[in-house]
Write a structure and sequence with these properties.
The structure holds 2 protein chains of 2 kinds. Chain A has strands spanning 4-7, 10-14, 19-25, 30-38, 45-50, 56-59, 62-67, 72-77, 86-94, 101-102, 106-111. In chain A, 35% of the residues are buried. By secondary structure, chain A is mainly beta. Chain B is mostly beta strands. Chain B has strands at residues 5-7, 10-13, 19-24, 31-38, 42-50, 53-57, 64-68, 74-78, 87-94, 105-106, 110-114. In chain B, strands 2, 4, 5, 6, 9, 10 and 11 form a 7-stranded mixed beta sheet that branches. In chain B, strands 1-3-8-7 form a 4-stranded antiparallel beta sheet, with no helix packed on it. The chains are: A mainly beta, B mainly beta.
C-alpha cells in the first residue's frame, strides 16, 4: 500500500518558470517530510525537509509548502534552471521509526 | 560525494544465482538502510540495521537477507535471482537520531542486471 502519493510523474518547465510537485500522505503519525533530488547515475540527495509545526520552509530557490489538515505538501522550485533537471522524490517518516516512505518520483525537465 | 560507498557499481548475473552487495556507511553513522529502485516501483525500502542489529524491515523478499558487521559496513545478499530482481540497489546511512530530523545519505548504488 502506497502511503505517499506524488504527482505529476513528469514535468516540463521553461527556464525561469516555477516547478511545482505535490505529495499527499495518509499516515498522521508522519512527522518529518524531506525532498530528495536524484540525477541520472547518482543516488538521491537531500534537498530540503520540513516538520509539520511550520507551514512553509524556504532554502534559496526551493520552498516546501505544508498543509497538515489536508495531509499534503509540495515542492516549489522558483526560477527553474536546466541544472534542476532531475528526478525529485518526496518522502515521509514517523511513528517512531527512522525509515522513509518515498513517493514514486517526478522527472523534471527544465528546457533552456 | 555523500561519503557512503557501494561496491560493485555494476553486476551482471544469471537467474538462479546469488550475489552480495556491499555498503560502507559514512564515518560515524550507525544506521544502514537498503533500498531497491525500479522504474515501476520507485524507491522501495528493504531493511534497516542499527549498530549491527536489524531495526526495521520493509518490502524485502525472503530470498534476500542483509547483515551489518562490527565495523558497521553492511552486505545485502540476494539469492535465487529472478529477472524481476534487476534494479538499482541503494544503501543509505544516517546517525539515526530520531529527534530533530534524520538525514539519510545515499550511496551511488549498485546496478544489478539478471539475465
Amino acid at each position: 500500500q502506497q502511503q505517499v502519493k506524488q504527482s505529476p510523474q513528469s514535468l516540463i518547465v521553461q527556464k525561469g518558470g516555477i516547478s511545482i510537485i505535490n505529495c499527499a500522505y495518509e499516515n498522521t503519525a508522519f512527522d518529518y517530510f524531506p525532498w530528495y533530488q536524484q540525477f541520472p547515475g547518482k543516488g538521491p540527495a537531500l534537498l530540503i525537509a520540513i516538520r509539520p509545526d511550520v507551514s512553509e520552509k524556504k532554502e534559496g530557490r526551493f520552498t516546501i509548502s505544508f498543509n497538515k489538515s489536508a495531509k499534503q505538501f509540495s515542492l516549489h522550485i522558483m526560477d527553474s534552471q536546466p541544472g534542476d533537471s532531475a528526478t525529485y522524490f518526496c518522502a515521509a517518516r514517523g511513528g517512531g521509526y527512522s525509515t522513509l516512505t518515498f513517493g514514486k518520483g517526478t522527472m523534471l525537465l527544465v528546457s533552456p | 560525494d555523500s561519503g557512503v560507498t557501494q561496491t560493485p557499481k555494476h553486476l551482471i548475473t544469471a537467474t538462479g544465482q546469488r550475489v552480495t552487495l556491499r555498503c560502507s556507511p559514512r564515518s560515524g553513522d550507525l544506521s544502514v538502510y537498503w533500498y531497491q529502485q525500479s522504474l515501476d516501483q520507485g524507491l522501495q525500502f528493504l531493511i534497516q540495521y542499527y549498530n549491527g542489529e536489524e531495526r526495521a524491515k520493509g518490502n524485502i523478499l525472503e530470498r534476500f537477507s542483509a547483515q551489518q558487521f562490527p565495523d558497521l559496513h553492511s552486505e545485502l545478499n540476494l539469492s535465487s535471482l529472478e529477472l524481476g530482481d534487476s534494479a538499482l540497489y541503494f544503501c543509505a546511512s544516517s546517525v539515526d537520531a530520531l529527534t530533530g530530523g534524520d538525514t539519510q545519505y545515499f550511496g551511488p548504488g549498485t546496478r544489478l542486471t539478471v539475465l
